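So, could you explain the following?
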Amino acid sequence: MLRVFTPAGAGLLTEIAAADANLPAGTVWIDMLNPSRDEELFIERATGIDVPTREEMDEIETSSRLYTERGAIYMTVVLATGIMKENAETSAVSFILTPAHLITLRYVEALSFDRFASQSERMPALCESAPMALVHLLDAVVDRLADSIEHVGKDVDAISRQAFKRVRTREQQRISNLALQSLLLRLGSAQDALSKARESAASLSRALGYLAFTVPRQAELGPHIKSLTRDVASLTDHAGYMASTITFLLDAALGLISIEQNAVLKIFSVSAIVFMPPTLVAGIYGMNFVHMPELQWQLGYPWALVLMLLSAVLPYLFFRWRGWL
């Protein structure tokens, strides 16, 4: 799908067909979303650039993602999407800056692009030139990334409260195994989303650094690029802090699981010790010797029962007194 934005015209991001002979006059931004081969060839004829293939966009070498060719600046960044929908994934997005056009090539839906399109419709000055459109679009991408990291941060705070909450009753102080498993799954999801956000921030940082040295000076984008660079750096620092928090919570959750397992083993151990003396008493009086004084005693049976009961209760009370239970 091809969409073009013409601030001097209707000021809308309108869809066009690849069969059109020419781009609309005054087109500044061309958004290519899941383009077909015919649409790629149309853009190449209309703008004089080479549209990178999807395989080229997925290359991890910096030289394959950031380069200048035929007067056009090519920047491919990793964009994190779906974080706020609990379906985090990353996808390569290319920004191609020519003297007359900004061309974006992507194979994923991104809310930041839709937001920037809506803002540009209200304020066409954001797209008065291709370089200006690029920095404002990157600004929208960084804002969306910040929202995603904040979303992960709120989820991490909720996990922390659930893991370390304190209640008054003794019966509610223990956390069930299902709750601990849920904590681990949520921590894994948060870590996955955060790692994708950090990857996106690192990719944006490299792209902004390259753009600062290659964008034409007459575009006067230096202050905008510096501001975006500082924003991305702060997001990277905050994401690093959150990563350490997630690591701590993961260690804490594993520690709680270990405590719960030890508590179960302690119960079995205490139960074995509590029932050991009654078993000993029952074993003694279960022997078939002829000369046993209590065998002919009328109160022998009640005596054996009371003795077994006391031998079980006394160790239990001792353990409670020492605080082992």
User: Anything to note?
Assistant: The CA atoms of residues 82 and 259 lie 35 Å apart. The mean pLDDT is 82. Helices lie at 37-47, 54-57, 62-65, 111-122, 130-164, 177-214, 222-285, 300-322.
